[in-house]
# Entry
Amino acid sequence: MKLLYTISLSWIALLCASQSYAQNTLYIPPALTGTTFNLSAQSGTTTLFSGFNTPTYGINGTWMAPTLIINKGDSVTFNVTNNLPVSTTIHWHGLHLPSKWDGGPHQIINTGSIWSPRFKVMNDAATFWYHPHGDKKTELHVSKGMAGMIIVKDAAEAALTLPRTYGVDDIPVIIQSKAFDVLKQIAIATEDDTTVFVNGTMQPYLNAPAQVIRLRLLNGSTSRSFKLGFTGNLAFSLIGNDAGLLDTSTTLTRIQIAPGERYEILLNLTGKQSQTIYLKNFGTELTNGIHGSAQVGTTGGMIPGYVDNKLNGADFNVLKIMVTAPTSTPVTTIPTTLVPKSPFPISSVNKERTFLFLPEPPSTPDKMVEGPFLINGNSFDMNIVNDTVKLGHTEIWKLVNGTEIAHPFHIHDVWFYVLDINGVPPPLYERGKKDVILVMPKDTVRFITKFEDFADPIVPFMYHCHLLHHEDEGMMGSFIVVDSTTSVKNYQQDNMIVKVYPNPAATSWLVEGGTDSKEIKVTLYDLMGKMLFTRLLSPVSGKFATSVNADLLPVGLYVLKINSEFSTQTLQLLKSNY
# Structure
């Protein structure tokens, strides 16, 4: 990563950001419900610091985004209008949906245009979020304010005695650290993220009733991990993580949360009326190597400005909670049994893949902590599909971190169960359905997942590091899900019928057809228009056939043109690694 140096905030401002008191009411984003959601990406200015107008982005406003509350089984439509001066995307982080509606870098929303993804909600009840995911633009757009929560509800969650009155005892807690220059402009690609926000609020306080409350924790930071707990080591109950409720609640006093991760916790405030409690970051307890700990790297590598950030390796308050009178119908108990889970059996695995994280060569101590980083030796390319998986297959993905900084790995489309970390079962808070896992330096993590419901041979899903500057610098890959039962297709135009199979192909495509033409020309191009193969055919009794070799081609998309004297057919083909 090449850092853009900014003038640091003064030490006085830093002290204000980490004082033991808070002075701003926690902003609770408005909740939108229903099946049709009209969302407008907007730009403007927001007064985050007295006397300064900071240029910001938001959804349905100029800062942050509303919370979307949807129900499992509903068919929903999101009408996203881009009123920004630049193109953007919106990714529905954690939702299981067709790749064409995923909102990755391939689904660009140009200025002034509307994108309307439509899909059936298939996720279990959990906390998700939405944010931009443009090629090399994710950190900028998220930092400027485009981040919102998604709450999915279902019948299993509704049957439990849980707090669920939004904004009263069911509270969204979107934690982000941001950097500002001396003019209070939001800065990216810098380690000066010394201002902490919750729901876009600095130094926030929350009035919470003296009963069991539910905090939906989301780390929406671009880089920083947190180790969260409460003053006095007050215990809380973990009930859910990224993609669903756990089977049983777990009592904890700390929980580590990396960028992109979500956790649902219950905090019992019964009998604590008039008390003040702080949600704190215990940065002194973060293991070295995690962005936000006191140190990254063990061989002398340096991230410029990292050691000067006084939040790194420090304990500080995140949210002040002032306990008020209970509501008229308080929840006062914490359920032990939640929602049963059925992890995928190892016996069902069809394939195992390995993903190796290393710096871009040549490797140096600085690059081992600073990057840019690659996955399996590749930097992200919009025109390349890195992996092909088969619909209905269960796979184990092995993540090997050869760098000296921890990477939160996120996969789109599916959720997973962590099998082991260095051969040892994961800690309690990382069990259950996940879509982000923090891979520590030199660690190996294995997870199991199943690719169900959605196949598209053309439009890919993403996997990537959720440190957004790592993602923007290329630490991201793409994969497609293919339905092997429908790989043979017939194409008909005018007097010519063409069959191309298999598609995707690992070694070659077979082209067969019938025509009245006396000559057929078959030509293969890459997406830049470069001709890779051409052959003239003379049909016999109106039939023609040939093969197109794919052995030496990189995995990705290609264009096949078949010309007769009467017509031209243009087809998209995929070279896979199967």
DSSP finds five helices and 42 strands in the chain. The mean pLDDT is 92. The CA atoms of residues 136 and 472 lie 4 Å apart.
